[in-house]
Design goal:
The complex is a heterodimer. By secondary structure, chain A is mainly alpha-helical. Chain A has one domain. Chain A contains 14 helices and 3 strands. In chain A, a hairpin with a 2-residue loop joins strand 1 and strand 2. In chain A, helix 12 packs antiparallel against helix 13. The longest helix of chain A is centred in the C-terminal third of the chain and has 34 residues. In chain B, helix 12 packs across helix 14 and helix 13 crosses helix 17. Chain B is 38% helix and 20% strand. In chain B, strands 2, 3, 4, 5, 8, 15 and 16 form a 7-stranded mixed beta sheet that branches. In chain B, strands 10-9-19-18-17 form a 5-stranded antiparallel beta sheet, with helices on both faces. By secondary structure, chain B is α+β, with helices and mostly antiparallel strands. The chains are: A mainly alpha, B alpha+beta. Chains A and B meet through helix 8, helix 11, helix 12 and helix 13 of A and helix 1 and helix 2 of B.
Chain lengths: 392, 576
């Protein structure tokens, strides 16, 4: 801690002179491609609405661009810092995650789309979603925990500790910010990290089956109660038959399906979406993938999905070659975050699972999401920079 | 740590494969949505994105037998408002209520109604529509469509009929041939965003309307026009309530003219006559209009009077109870059962044969013929001649015959029927039956519709009409033609003579019910040439003032008509 940042960078440069270090240009390219593609699609999806609402058709794209620039700077800075630097802050990270969530209830909190999920950082006016902070902090916390517990991860007690630690945070995200999807993502990240750290298989398969059974039970209950319950139960009914709830909970899903279906194999061409003309709510946000499908067709969609697969493949290479377990676990956490979020988003848009608000990483409009994702990518670069080429 | 590392690598690979599998499954789902479900969702989405506006199909025209256009279409405008596009509602309300001469409240109600599209007024003159378009008000739509237009205004108004605002026939041939004339409406589909704002770049999709087929009818504009003049002239000089003139080809039933004056203006059919009280409620107004629109030749029945003697004579000749040379004696009256029925000539016609009795229109002779036939046989002929059935003319609302039931008919009833009283038929029925008797015995169907023609001048459908042959024998028919020629040549129909032509005919003067009011119907039925009739005409003058005899009032009308139309129809003068 005594060393300043500048001194650390100097140390790295000296080390770099000694041996060839790895820098993953492919990963950088993929991330930049996704960001650039996202900007184009945000402009396409939002320009009509933005022009009508504010007179500036590039309004959303400009805001996103600013967030991306800030995020890229943060990414570079984080990538230059040795990731071991963060190791000792794992409890602080946990505390920050836990403390940031209730801030949405204070006057700083911002309600939008019917939920208080954001707060404003005073002075600079930046809107932050504490769930995003929590995801980064949980990745760090769990990576450190895996190293601390060591072989104990494989035991039942280790498992309970690992899964129990993020649970309060996830519950807070769910209950306080009314954001079940982010809570689920936090738990999914933890699950994947524990899965990788533990040498066992059987227990995880059983857990997976239990999860499927639980989901089936909830669906059955929703159908049984005929959607009389909470909005989440209604969404399950809408998921099974969006047409039956066309004016209600099924509206967004159905509009998304219209977009995907009418795009067909070849799409209508960039900028030619009809559904973005106020038919599809959140078209530049959670539902942007359906606009991609409408304009660029099945082939646009496969390109995006291929980019995500390549992204996690590159990160897998880095995780496999990481200098130590801590680095590997950090990367695994980031993989879990990005992959689970992308998969869930596409699953929602295609009505494969019930509707829940999840954005598509790097592409959906949302400043705080993209900034924290870039910080995570910065961590991955930081891990990759420690890999000596002779190790590969 | 090294051992662990291998385990971790394996686990990371498993995780990667698991996540990739999830992507692949989603990809399969996407293929399903974009390939299999594409058509369905595209259709749903298109339906969501498009707003429909109808384009009226041009209604088929009605052409006379020579191709003159009797019913046409002209361009008019429909003014509508689109709620979501209106920027300045007050100005829209002001402009529309002023230009369209509508009350401000009614326009306001429509402008402020939240709907995707609200029609303000249809059938607006093109000039007004163009003017409104020039205001360039956002949210106001001016769509052009067609309005029925009748170039000759009143001509054959009760035959042609007119249409309502939605291109639906309301009266006359417009009703009968509605289906052929209507065509199929087209649609303009405009792509809009969710708020209903038009999307410029998408343009409009049009499903073109299919124009209705033209209808060619047997009516001759010139004959109709001349007959109308004659009818108005007679109505004025005789201060009559109305005059009807029917002109038909007795061989095939094609109607050349059907006039019922007063006619009305087809381009303004809802206009109430001048001097109508304002206090009429809507039902009274409608009753008044229905009266104005009535086609007396078809919708109304009357006692035909002496013209019906044609039928009695034909039945008598056909059955053999009388021959042209049979002799009778008329003392000026005849006693039937306990009733004394007078002849119109109180002194009586004295001794006369059947030809002269017809020329004299002698009631006792025709009563005698009727009584010789007896109720049963007379009734049989009445039915055989087709008098109990409707003629089947292709106009709506034909009235049926009002006749005694056979079992209620005694000799007195039979006697009155024999000279055309105590029952009622329509003028078209009388003309059709007379035609059938003089044309060789073929009961024809009177009609207008000849063929329907599409926009490329192809005949889509040629209309055929039933003919019942042999209702009287050729011989009876010839005898009747000869006797009726004598009526005009030397008998009561002298005023129907046309120089150079052999005309057959019969007059009638019937008192209307109730009797004793001094109201008469004077009529004359005439045909030419007498030996081979090509045209038959019936003129009916209702309640003429002054002289009311058919021979004096109606025969001259037919004479004037024939003087003009016989050369026009190419019927050559008889050199004899």
């Amino acid at each position: 801690m005594a060393k300043t940042l500048a001194a650390r960078i100097k140390t790295y440069r000296r080390e770099r002179e000694k041996t060839e270090y790895f820098f993953d240009y492919s990963l950088l390219f993929i991330v930049l491609f996704l960001l650039g593609f996202g900007l184009v699609m945000i402009y396409s999806a939002s320009s009509y609405t933005a022009f009508q609402d504010s007179g500036d058709s590039a309004q959303f794209m400009k805001k996103q661009l600013l967030a991306i620039i800030i995020g890229l700077v943060a990414m570079v800075v984080v990538s230059l810092i040795d990731y071991h630097f963060w190791q000792k802050f794992y409890w602080i990270g946990y505390a920050v995650a836990a403390a940031s969530i209730p801030v949405v209830l204070t006057p700083l909190g911002i309600a939008s789309h019917g939920a208080r999920r954001w707060f404003k950082i005073p002075g600079i006016g930046l809107q932050v979603q504490p769930a995003e902070i929590a995801k980064v902090c949980m990745i760090l916390f769990l990576a450190v925990m895996v190293c601390k517990i060591g072989k104990g991860v494989g035991t039942f007690r280790g498992f309970v500790v690992m899964m129990g630690a993020p649970l309060p945070i996830a519950l807070m995200i769910w209950k306080i910010t009314n954001n079940m999807s982010s809570a689920l993502i936090v738990m999914a990240i933890s699950f994947l990290m524990v899965f990788v750290a533990s040498p066992r298989y059987k227990e995880f398969i059983l857990m997976g089956l239990a999860g499927v059974a639980l989901a089936a039970g909830v669906v059955w209950y929703a159908v049984y109660s005929a959607g009389q319950g909470t909005f989440r139960l209604k969404r399950i009914v809408a998921w099974l038959n969006p047409e039956s709830q066309a004016q209600d909970t099924g509206f967004q899903t159905l509009q998304g399906l219209y977009a995907i279906g009418s795009g067909g194999i070849w799409g209508k061409g960039l900028g030619q979406s009809m559904q973005k003309l106020k038919f599809l709510p959140e078209s530049q946000n959670d539902m942007i993938f359906s606009i991609i499908c409408e304009e660029l067709g099945l082939f646009g969609a496969i390109a995006v999905m291929a980019m995500f697969i390549m992204l996690i493949w590159r990160m897998m290479i880095i995780a496999n070659n990481a200098e130590d377990l801590f680095g590997a676990m950090l990367v695994v956490g980031v993989i879990g975050h990005i992959a689970v979020q992308a998969i869930l988003n596409i699953a929602v848009v295609t009505n494969t699972i019930p509707n829940t608000g999840i954005s598509l990483p790097f592409i959906s409009y949302g400043g705080s999401s993209v900034m924290f994702l870039l910080i995570e990518i910065g961590l991955v670069f930081s891990v990759s920079r420690r890999i000596q080429l002779k190790d590969m | 740590m090294q051992l662990n590392r291998i385990s971790h690598r394996k686990k990371i690979l498993v995780m990667f494969l698991g996540l990739t599998l999830a992507f692949v499954l989603l990809f399969v789902r996407l293929i399903y949505l974009t390939v299999w479900r594409s058509e369905y969702y595209t259709e749903q989405a298109t339906r969501l994105h498009e707003r429909e506006r109808n384009i009226k199909a041009a209604r088929g025209r009605i052409l006379d037998r020579n191709g003159a256009v009797l019913a046409d279409n002209k361009t008019v405008c429909t003014i509508s408002v689109i709620y979501n596009q209106i920027e300045d509602p007050e100005r829209v309300i002001k402009v529309l209520s002023e230009e369209l001469e509508l009350s401000e409240e009614s326009v306001r109600r429509k402008v402020e109604k939240y709907s995707s599209m609200e029609r303000i007024k249809s059938n607006v003159e093109k000039a007004v529509g163009d003017r409104i378009r020039e205001y360039d008000l956002p949210g106001v739509k001016v769509d052009e469509d067609y309005k029925r237009y009748y170039p000759y205004g009143e001509l054959a108004s009760k035959v042609l009929g007119f249409t309502g605002g939605d291109n639906q026939g309301i009266l006359g041939l417009e009703v009968t041939y509605d289906e052929q004339l209507q065509g199929e409406d087209g649609v303009i589909l405009t792509v809009t965003d969710a708020a209903g704002v038009e999307v410029e770049r998408m343009g409009e999709r049009r499903i073109e309307p299919v124009a209705g087929n033209d209808l060619r009818i047997s009516l001759d504009r010139n004959i109709q026009s001349y007959a109308t003049q004659l009818a108005y002239q007679a109505m004025e000089t005789k201060e009559a309530e109305g005059v009807s003139i029917l002109v038909m080809n007795p061989q095939n039933g094609e109607i050349y003219a059907m006039v019922n004056v007063p006619e009305f203006d087809l381009n303004d059919p809802f206009a109430l006559p001048e001097g109508t009280e304002d206090s009429l409620d809507s039902k009274e107004q409608q009753d008044l209009l229905n009266n104005i629109w009535r086609n007396g030749c078809i919708n109304d029945t009357y006692e035909p009077g002496s013209t019906f003697k044609i039928i009695t004579a034909a039945a008598g000749l056909e059955s053999g109870v009388v021959t042209p040379s049979s002799t009778f004696s008329c003392p000026g009256y005849i006693i039937v059962d306990d009733r004394k029925i007078r002849c119109h000539k109180i002194a009586g016609h004295g001794s006369e044969d059947f030809v002269h009795a017809t020329m004299n229109s002698c009631n006792p002779v025709f009563i005698t013929v009727g009584l010789r036939l007896g109720v049963e046989r007379y009734y049989e002929y009445f039915e055989e001649f087709g008098l109990k059935k409707k003629t089947g003319v292709d106009l709506p609302g034909e009235a049926g015959t009002i006749m005694h039931k056979m079992e209620d008919m005694g000799n007195v009833e039979l006697a009155t029927v024999s000279f055309g009283q105590s029952f009622q038929i329509t003028p078209i029925q009388l003309l059709t039956t007379a035609s059938s008797i003089i044309n060789g015995g073929n009961r024809i169907t009177p009609h207008f519709g000849i063929e329907s023609i599409d926009s490329e001048q192809n005949v889509v459908e040629t209309y055929t009409y039933p003919i019942t042959q042999g209702i009287v024998s050729e011989e009876t028919s010839a005898t009747m033609r000869g006797m009726l020629e004598m009526v005009v040549k030397e008998g009561g129909g002298k005023n129907g003579q046309v120089e150079g032509y052999r005309i057959g005919g019969k007059t009638a003067t019937s008192q209307t019910l109730p009797r004793g009011t001094g109201r008469y119907i004077a009529s004359f039925i005439g045909f030419a040439p007498a030996e081979d009739p090509q045209v038959i005409a019936l003129a009916i003058v209702t309640n003429p003032q002054g002289v009311y005899y058919g021979g004096q009032v109606s025969a001259p009308i037919v004479r004037q008509l024939f003087e003009n139309i016989l050369p026009y129809l190419g019927i050559e003068e008889d050199v004899q």
